[in-house]
Amino acid sequence: MTMNVVIYHNPACGTSRNTLELIRNAGIEPTVIEYLKTPPSREELAGMIADAGLTVREAIREKGTPFAELGLGDPALTDEQLLDAMLKDPVLINRPFVVTPMGTRLSRPSEVVLDILPDTHKGPFAKEDGEQVIDAEGKRLV
User: How far apart are CA 98 and CA 109, in angstroms?
Assistant: First the structure.
């Protein structure tokens, strides 16, 4: 299937790997951007966050990042300051963001991506942990 899909991916992240494979299971080969190597621009990041219906705080990653050391939990920090931190240190960008013509999502959990993909799945799909997400007929289970 031809559909312009972009995933901001971290290959070291299981959720990101599951999301990428769910996209491929729909018969789509997405544009894969390893955002730690090639971060989005400020406009792209702010746009993805807004398009996904999130606040900047909801899009920042805390676990396994310098979030606490940088004091980013301070409620006095503005969205602009948080975006500055995310752009300076892209590991603070939560992942994976997926952009399709059907919408933008922060795909946590990975099956959230199914909301913005066509129903064209090529058979069953299970996450790396074994959780079945799509059955043998290509129907969504979760």
Answer: 12
